[in-house]
Every structure is written in structure tokens, then in C-alpha cells.
Specification:
Layout lengths: L1 H21 L2 E6 L6 E8 L6 E3 L8 E5 L2 E9 L3 E9 L6 E2 L8 E7 L3 E16 L9 E6 L2 E6 L7 E5 L4 E4 L6 E7 L13 E3 L7 E8 L4 E5 L6 E6 L12 E3 L4 E7 L10 E6 L2 E2 L12 E5 L4 E7 L16 E4 L3 E5 L4 E6 L4 E6 L4 E5 L8 E6 L2 E6 L2
Length: 394
Amino acid sequence: MKQNYKKYLVLTFLLLCSLTITAENVIIKFAQGAQNVTANAYLINPSTLQEEKLIPAADGFTYEVSSGSKVRLEAIPDEGYVVYVWKGGSDESSMTEMRGSYSATQQVLENVTSNKIVTLDVCKLVPVTFIVPGEGSEGAEVNVEEQGDFGRVIAPEADGITYMLPEGRGAYFDPRPTDGYNILVWSFGNNLYFPSRPDQFYKQNIPNGFYLTILFYKDGEKRTITYTQPQTAVITCHNHSESGSPVIESGTDVTPGDHILFEIAPFDNPAGKVPVAYWEVNGQPYVDAAGDYITDNSVTFIAVENLDVKVVIEGEVPTGMDNVASQSMMVMANASAVSVTGTEGVVAIYDIRGTCLGKQESINGKATFRLQGIAKGDVIIVVAGDESKKIVLN
């Protein structure tokens, strides 16, 4: 009898322990601090697979469930947003990214036996333009960055060149050139080029409206480099893309995309400085993003196309300009008229390329020009005798 009673006590104790263990609860913290997303949690019945929506604590993100529960976490981003990545861990110090979770709207936690924290990185989707030539490519491919590597492939919008990417995160752009085609240059538009030519382009911190395009060249193509020596200085040209940066003469062919360095110096002083007014490339003045002349004594151009380079030194008249007599010239100019006073003889006006826009005799020390085909911000050069003035039209 006593033995049976002892067995009964032992069984009762074990049953109570079992009930205590089963009744133990665990805490799930989900989507704390997440914005632009609707987060829900559901308890899944393992037998029927029916779901019961869980009600969070007053903080809005803490859920309490029985140990061993199966829980589905749901994240529905607002329109125009995406869940960039889910992270999970037992505490804040152990959080790791859930692989392949880009744009996922749910995660299922199986057999939850300890406290869990699950967070969401929700990003705004912004339009990005990536243009790849049809000839020479197997088709562009864009991947979001996940765990520091190529992640989900993003399909373009209906226009074929716009991609909706998570703002402020990373992405990879792959032009996938076909055999016989090579990357010439990566371009951000407006003749802004990336200085190197990686097979794929990685962009960190994607901004709204980011623009990227690429140009190819075929095997065997070349670019020709020509340049004109000024009268009072000497230009030296180097191919920076070849080993040792060799000096190249005018008329040399180079590989498309090579970086070509031009340096100017006085005849008798290779280390001296020359007062450069502006450089001219393929008939156009070389300016910075603000439209100001680049006046450095050394400049580098990328051989995207054939390069024909000239330099205008301060005080020198560009090729093709006439010498006319003058004295103490003053110029008043805007986009419609140019008034030149304090001159004698012939006064001439040229554009920045040296093309004559007008020429007339000064009458009573004054000459007035009505110009066509020019606009505010254009640069003209007024020449009278040995005096010339560069004017930006207002």
C-alpha cells in the first residue's frame, strides 16, 4: 500500500512538473520601431493549421506565447515601400540578417522555446535609371545587395530602363556584355564618367533618381589622339592607362576608354606654370560642373571618342582671329547686343571656338553689334588691335 502511495506521489509530481513546463511562456518582440509597415503576429495550430491573431502588449510589439508555439509574423509595407531585410536573435546583441528576406512579407517561427526579437528594415522605393545598349549586351541585370553580396534580381519597369530600388541601400548593376564587346565607360550622364571600368558597378546608398549608363566598344576599335602645340608653350601627352604612362605624339591611336593626360609648361622650364585661359576638346571649351573653365596646367581626358585638344593661353588670340588697331577698349554686352567703345579701326567678335561672329569699322570710337544665335551665358571674345577681352553674356 505504501509503495503504491509513493508511486502515486511521484506520478503526481511529474505531472505537475510537466504542466508547469508546458505552461511556461516565451516573449516575441516584433517590428519594434518599424515605420511605414503594418506588422501582425499569428499563432498557428499545429494540428489544424488554423491561425489565431495575437494581440500585442500595450507597447504594440511584444507578444507572449506558450513555449513550443508555431508563430507566423507578417509585415505589409505601405505603398511605395519594401521590407529590405528581416533580422532576428535572442537579444539585441545577437541579431543577424535572415538570408534572402528582401521583400518578404512573412516569416514563420517553428517551435519557439525561448525569447525572440525580430526587426524590420523598411525602405522607400525610388526610381533608378540603368541604360545598356541593345547591341553588345545579353540584357541588363540589377541586384539589390543582401549580406554584402549579389541579392535579389530586380525586374525593370515597363520602360525597360527604370528600376525601383530601396533608397539608401546598395545595388549591383551588370551590363552583361556579349563576346567581342568591352566596357568603354560607365557614365552618370552629362559627360560625367566613373574613373575605372569594373565588370559590374556597385552603388552604395542609392539616391532617388540615380542615373547610370554604359558604353561598349568592339574588339579592335581604336581612338585617335591629336593636339595642337601653342605658340609660347609646349604640350606633353601621356597615356596613363598603359604601363609607365608613355609619352604619345599627336595622331597616336589608343584603346577606347584610355585615360590621356595633357600637361603644358613653358619652353624653357618644364616645372614652370603657364597662364591657361581654357582648354578646348573637340571644338568645345573644357568646363567643370559649374560651367567654369578648367585652367589647370595638367588635365586628363577619357578617350570615349577621338580627342582633338587645344589650349588657349591668357593674352593669346585663338587661331583665326585678326589683328586690328585699338586703344583702351570698353565692352558692354548682353545676349542681344554688344557695344564696344574706346577703339579705332576694325573691331571683331569671335565665339569661344574662334569663329567670327561679326566685324566692323569703329565710328567715333564706337562699334555696336547685333548678334544672332547666341544666348545668356555664352562666351564671346572681342578683339581690337592688340587688345582682346573675354565676355560672358548676361
